[in-house]
Amino acid sequence: MKKKNFIFLITDDYFLNFYSANYSYFFKKIFDISNIFDEFAVINISKIFLKKRIKIKKPKLKYYEPNSIIELYDLFKNKKSIGFCKLEYNFIYYPIFFILKFRSVKLIQISNIKLLKEKNISKNYTAFELINFFLNIKLKYYIYRLLSILRIFPNIYIHFETDNERIQSIKKRIIWKISKYLKISNLTHYENIIPINSIYRQDCETKNITIPKNIVFCDAPFIHEDIKNREGKIEIKKAEEYYLRVFNFLKKIQKTFKKKIIFCLHPKGTYNSLKNFEKIKKNFIVKKFETEKFISNSFISIFVISNLINLAIHNRKRIIIISSNLWGNYVKNKINQINKRKFFVYNIDDITSFNKEIFIKFAKKKISQKNYEPKKKEVTYYLKKFIKDKKI
User: Fold this and answer.
1) Residue 218 lies in a domain
2) Which end of the chain is more exposed for a tag (fewer CB within 10 A), N or C?
């Protein structure tokens, strides 16, 4: 019997709860490539492991919720399987990783946006922050990597990457060179790295500008799990003060340019408990899951830290980076890295020093017409080739 080419997304309630707010947007790339396979499905393993379930909106796709490890094991029977694993490296999920390896499942990743570099990101960290960062983020990854080197867990068979700098950085690592020289694939996290177009280039080639040009603020939430994992508990008092400063700054910008302010929420940010965020809601247009659309059609795009800066660059937008001493070392280090690109960085801590002439002069500057990114082939091209060559 001929085996089916099966592509899947394996995940849990927590992931689906977040992405269910806009499945069509978050699953877009999977939808784009699913038609070259015989079957595509979402596999939710929460029934097996999680006692406390979250009520989720199920995707309108073939959807499995196996009741046991055996049921999950049987799902991959008589199939040539390739998929996306959206599970954290938690110990309770180790049986899942083992099954994926035992069933010879090929895992893929698609990184279709340029990422902010993580170089020297722990600079100036306190001892507490370094320990917190190691225990909450690094340790789980290191254990997973060790088990993948021992061939107990799977590596990433294909990593599709749009960022040439990141590709070069990975290939310069000693472990990558050794693994390629000795032809030992499991030494590295990625067996194959393939350059592709970014989503920004694709969007820029297909979008029609129909929305009036406004000023867009792309928020980096002051209260966020990633920051908690690195820096510990976040003070609500600091968060309140930060959003008051953001509010005052945006009011000045609004008055200077006489344009509407679109405040784009971060999907994973916590806002409801903050009184000063209510001021932002009452005075500006607040949107969620539409950040890319508004950046692409903005007069000015304002950021703290966000990979979407690259979308603004690609669309040749005027960019302002705001900073504040209220941020911890993690965000401050990222802002310093962004600043190396020589953007207009403005500290919002003292609004009395706001000089509108500086911003008006900035807005009159000519935007570079330099082509930001060379064109590459799409993911579908390579997957078709891998299937044809029977490498998948």
Assistant:
1) yes
2) N
| CB neighbourhood size of 218 (10 A) | 26
Q: By the 8 A CB rule, do 77 and 2 touch? A: no
- Contact by Cβ (8 Å): 9, 53: no
Residues 66 and 182 both lie in one domain: yes
- Considering the domain boundaries, does residue 205 fall inside one? no
What CATH number is attached to the domain comprising 358?
Answer: 3.40.50.2000
Residue 227 structural domain? 210-364
Taking CA atoms, 82 is separated from 100, 148, 231, 237, in Å, by: 10, 17, 36, 47
- 345 DSSP β-pair partners: 321
Report yes or no: 79 and 54 within 8 Å, Cβ to Cβ: no
Q: Are residues 228 and 111 in the same domain?
A: no
Please state, in angstroms and rounded to a whole number, the distance separating the CA atoms of residues 221 and 338.
Answer: 17
Let me know whether 18 and 133 are in one domain: yes
* Residues ≥6 apart with Cβ < 8 Å to 109: 84, 156, 158, 159, 160, 190
pTM (2 d.p.): 0.75
CA nearest to 144, candidates 76, 85, 77, 69: 85
Residue 64 is predicted with a pLDDT of: 93
List pLDDT tens digits, range 208-257: 555 558 999 999 888 877 777 777 777 889 999 999 999 999 999 999 99
Q: Same structural domain for residues 350 and 382?
A: no
CATH number assigned to the domain comprising residue 194: 3.40.50
Residue pLDDT, tens place only, 6-49: 889 999 998 888 777 777 777 777 777 787 888 889 999 999 98
Same domain assignment for residues 184 and 324: no
